[in-house]
């Protein structure tokens, strides 16, 4: 379809053309229709012997060559009026302008409409001196390679043009319809415009234009064809006055191009003179761009921002844009910015080359700028330790004064990396539990720019009194507790609010010690002193030895709770009941115990006379674990008196009297007191047995 349209445009546009002579005949290319308006005569090359003698009025000469054999007809039709009389003359085949001979077809009859050759008329001539005065003449039988001349003459000598159409079975020679010569369609220059000639883009008006730059696109790869350019159609049809150098052009003048074949093996080939023409004009497609400014966030005062260069409002039309870091790079086409959507840069300038679909380009400068940096400063906040974990505190991060700038929002993060990336945001900034350390706050302004500040977290540790320690007092005593100076406040569990709490008895107490706004709870205990324990009393004759453990030495001893001694030995103790008192170094209420010093019997005469027959300790039978043991002089146990034998010894062993002599004994028991105090009473006895 494109090829047919091209041929039609090139072949029908022969209007308003000056007269031609035979030697400059217009070549007819193929069987395409022709439209033409002759405007005067050429050199007089009539009369003709077959149709009479006439003169050229408004004439045009054509030359055509047969491509395929057959019948050939044509029709000449006035374009605007049926009162115009057109004549025609045909010479050939294979004649020259200087030796044409007589016509083989002609018509000089008066006609007010179409004329030409058809398939029904049998007369080759029409007009004066012929038998035919009709508008039509007989067709021609033609062979390949035959060349003919055709003269069309507007006998009415007016400016009404004509159209020439071909018919019959034969075809006319044309390089433009030979697929061997023209394997590709020719392409008219510029952009098609239905109501005007094609438009060739120029990027300034006026401008100097090299017409030869259009040639490769028009020829479209067809070899041995030549394109010339002209300022009028007459020159385009004839090939005269071609434009050979760059010219200054504008947008109002119409220009013409002419395509013809140049046979490389036969310069005189008739097909070489066959031309296709077309017209075009120039259209100013220049573009204007605006410099622009892109402003982005200088986040955290890094000096770098990510710019989307494509958002710079440099051009509102359709076009392609290429971005370069310097003007020199743009001019040389080097170092193109390949990531214009995410271009990381400091403040400065880049350049953009904008090219519209018509190939026109311009340059704009994009200034890269920063919004004001969000003003922040590092801060420190403190918190009291928590009771659950004294190394941590509960912080209200909002209390950190990191900026005085208004219209900002704050987000808190545990690390600088998180703050920069916006990840792992602290969800509870008003009750953030943390030890000593650092968190980061991302402060964002209304432009969505941010800076990051550092918040130092300080946990106030518990501050305890160094002088407040546990005490030991007597159970019945009272004391004071002193938390020491240097605290901002005191709250005792006793209700006291002073440094010293008084009238303190045995027990567990606490005090809340205030340092700044933090309270440290310190517990203190007042212990009852441990009473000494009398672990045993040894009685030997009239001597008491008191054994004590527990409490806090040194011990004091007394038998009347008035006079005290440091020795645990009492002598010259009378027989009977006594009280023993013991106290330790705390001088608390003494421990008291009752002591019984038994009646000592040193001689028995077991002769059953009822006098001193036995040693009898049954009076102590109410004591716990009472045992009465007899030893001989070698320390061997010879008798044990207990509840089974009534705590007595009558000087016998297994019913036999022991020899007279001195024996030793001990009496042990546990006193009926809270401590079950053990007692040991020892002595000697003389046994006199008479046989």
What does this structure look like?
It is a single chain. By secondary structure, the chain is mainly beta. It is 5% helix and 41% strand. The chain contains five helices and 52 strands. Strands 38, 39, 41, 44, 46, 47, 51 and 52 form an eight-stranded mixed sheet that branches. Strands 1, 3, 5, 6, 8, 11 and 13 form a seven-stranded mixed sheet that branches. Strands 2, 4, 7, 9, 10 and 12 form a six-stranded mixed sheet that branches. A hairpin with a 5-residue loop joins strand 30 (437-444) and strand 31 (450-460). The longest helix is centred in the N-terminal third of the chain and has 11 residues, at 2-12.
Keywords:
41% strand, 691 residues, 52 strands, single chain, mainly beta, disordered N terminus, eight-stranded mixed β-sheet, rod-shaped
Classify the oligomer.
Answer: single chain
Amino-to-carboxy terminus distance: 173 Å
Major sheet summary line: 8 strands, mixed
Uncertain ranges: 1-18
Number of helices: 5
Number of strands: 52
Rg over alpha carbons: 71 Å
Bulk shape: rod-shaped
The portion of residues assigned to helices is: under 10%
SS-based structural class?
A: mainly beta
Q: What does the average pLDDT come to?
A: 88
Beta percentage is: 35-45%
